[in-house]
Amino acid sequence: METLNDDNLRQFIKTFYGYGNLASRFWFIGMEEGGGNSLKEIRARLIAWEQLGKPELADLRDFHLLLGMPEFFTPQVKLQRTWMQMARIVLVAKGQPHGLEELRTYQKDYLGHKNEESCLMELLPLPSPRTSSWAYAHWSTLPFLAKRETYYQQFYHQRSAHIRERIQKNRPKVGIFYGIGYRTFWQAIAGKEVEFQNQDGFLSGITSHTVYLIIKHPNAGKLSNTYFEKVGAYLREHLQT
C-alpha cells in the first residue's frame, strides 16, 4: 500500500503549528484541523508546506491555494464555516461592520495572513474528519501513528508547551481556544494562574496582557451568528479597558 514520506511527516508533526502571524493581536487555537479525508490530500499538504519553506506558521491563503482550494480566497469567496466565525469575532471586537461581504473580504485578505493581525494554531497538526477516524496508521509506518491515542501521548505535552511559550513571548491581546470540551488542554496552555469564569456560553480569563476565551467550536451543533457576535462584543468591551 502507498504511504507518506515519513521523514517529512515527522518534521511536519513536530514543527508546523498553523497559519498567520505570531506578532498578531488575535490568536485562535484549536485541537486539530478538519479534513484529512484521503492520502492524496495529506500528501498535498506536506508538499505545500515544503514549497512554502516548512514554516512554523504558513500564510493561510498561500497554503490553501497550493492545495487547490481557491474558492475560499478568489473574488467570489466561499465562506468557510470556522474561518467565517473567526472573522466575525475579530470584526465585532474592532467595532467594524460584519455583514457577509465584510466577512468574505476579511477571510480572503486578512485572516491567517503572515503579515496581518491573526494567527490560527492547532494543538495537534494532523487534520482529521472526526475524532473517531484515524487513517494515519494505514498511511504511515511511524509507530506513534499506529493509534490516535499514541499520537496524542507522543506530542500533546511538547506542542502544548511550545504554544504556551509562544504566547508568553509574543503576548497577544486575545487568545481564543475553541472547543469547550477541551478545557483541560486550554487551561494547561493558558497556565494555572488564569482563572476562567463563565460568561453565558463561553469562558473568559484575563491577565495583564491577554484576554483568554474558551468558546464553542463553530462546527458544534447549530450555533447562531449571535453567539460569535456576543464573543466579539465581550472582547471589544475588555480590550478598551
List the helices and strands and how they pair.
Layout: H1 6-15, E1 18-20, E2 26-30, H2 39-51, E3 57-58, H3 60-66, H4 81-93, H5 100-109, E4 118-122, H6 136-139, H7 148-170, E5 174-178, H8 183-190, E6 197-198, E7 203-206, E8 211-215, H9 225-239
Parallel strand pairs: 1-3, 2-4, 2-5, 5-8
Antiparallel strand pairs: 1-4, 6-7, 7-8
Helix pairs in contact: 4-5, 4-9, 7-8
Describe the protein.
- With 241 residues, this protein is of the alpha/beta class.
- The chain has one domain (6-239): Uracil-DNA Glycosylase, subunit E, CATH 3.40.470.
- The protein has nine helices and eight strands.
- The protein has helices at residues 6-15, 39-51, 60-66, 81-93, 100-109, 136-139, 148-170, 183-190, 225-239; strands at 18-20, 26-30, 57-58, 118-122, 174-178, 197-198, 203-206, 211-215.
- Strands 3-1-4-2-5-8-7-6 form an eight-stranded mixed beta sheet, with helices on both faces.
- Helix 4 packs across helix 5 (100-109), helix 4 runs parallel beside helix 9 (225-239) and helix 7 (148-170) packs parallel to helix 8.
- The longest helix has 23 residues, at 148-170.
- The radius of gyration is 17 Å and the shape is globular.
- The mean pLDDT is 96.
